[in-house]
Design a protein that fits this description.
By secondary structure, the protein is an alpha+beta fold. It has a single domain, classed as Peptide Deformylase (Alpha-Beta Complex). It has 3 helices and 7 strands, in the order H-E-E-E-E-E-E-E-H-H. The chain binds nickel (II) ion.
Length: 167
């Protein structure tokens, strides 16, 4: 396994739309293992392949406290959603930034596991938020894009300034 490099906002590659996985090959299993290791090491609660510059529909999530409930979703698709909830979100691609985002409260997601078997996940609360956040990444969307244009441009300026200072 390996720790992968995580793209940092505002990197244009974060806006790439991921393609579905067609075949559950060894390279997909290696990607999943590396992504899980990268997420746990960060530490973070979720990671999408887009964030490690692999543009395939793969996400890993673990919102459990003991960090032992890894959810791997390949080609995830939200088949139903209901309600509204607002959680404060962060992202490994936007370190140090936490903002409230409104999303569906409950979702049902269909996906493939690493063996290529279909499964359905019903999620609510923080897990539902997390899965929606990661699926957004696969569609090329970073959570800060839910903020107003003004907030987004202030945020970009702050990040670029901070990066310059740490070089
Ligand atoms: Ni993220």
């Amino acid at each position: 396994m390996a720790i992968l490099k995580i793209l940092q906002y505002p990197d244009a590659r974060l806006h790439t739309v991921a393609k579905p996985v067609r075949e559950m090959s060894g390279s997909v299993r290696k990607l999943v293992a590396d992504m899980a290791e990268t997420m746990y090491a960060a530490p973070g609660v979720g990671l999408a392949a887009t964030q490690v510059d692999v543009h395939r529909q793969v996400i890993v999530v673990d919102v459990s406290e003991p960090r032992d409930r890894l959810v791997v979703m390949i080609n995830p698709e939200i088949i139903s959603s209901s309600g509204e909830s607002v959680h404060e979100e962060g992202c490994l691609s936007v370190p140090g930034v936490y903002e409230k985002v409104q999303r569906a409260e409950r979702i049902t997601v269909r996906a493939l596991d690493v063996q290529g078997n279909h499964f359905t996940l019903e999620a609510d609360g923080f897990l539902a938020t997390c899965v929606q956040h990661e699926i957004d990444h696969l569609n090329g969307k970073v959570f800060v894009e839910y903020l107003s244009q003004l907030k987004q441009s202030r945020l970009r300026a702050r990040i670029i300034k901070r990066r310059r200072e740490t070089l």
